[in-house]
Design goal:
The protein contains two helices and six strands, in the order H-E-E-E-E-E-E-H. It is α+β, with helices and mostly antiparallel strands. Strand 3 and strand 4 form a beta hairpin. The longest helix has 25 residues.
């Protein structure tokens, strides 16, 4: 459980920093990033809101996406990635793809 918290906390911190930088450089007034009580919220105005949070009982990170819906990611130590078991996609891969569509340019989300 200790490793889960270390990896998940590092992931959430890196994600917060990356998303804050992304929103700050875009300068769209309706875009906003917040992190309270372990829940990260990325509000993208008319594009919708992403909610990302840790789920310690399941050792997962949960994502709610306005484009692809809810997903639950498990950490695979061998791959050093958060993976969605149903489709094998990584958390950073999905976020990179979806945010690239929203921002109209290539976005590379690196979490670990």
């Amino acid at each position: 459980m200790v490793q889960y918290h270390e990896v998940a906390d590092r992931t959430m911190d890196n994600l917060l920093e990356t998303l804050e930088l992304l929103v700050d450089t875009d300068e769209t007034p309706s875009y906003e990033v917040e992190y309270h009580s372990g829940v990260l919220t990325l509000n993208l105005g008319t594009h919708g809101t992403y909610v990302i949070n840790k789920q310690p009982p399941n050792k997962q990170i949960w994502l709610s996406s306005p484009l692809s819906g809810p997903k639950r990611y498990d950490y695979l130590e061998d791959d050093n990635q958060w993976i969605y078991a149903r489709d094998g996609r990584t958390l950073n891969g999905l976020l990179s793809e979806e945010l690239s569509k929203v921002f109209g340019r290539t976005i590379d989300i690196t979490l670990l």
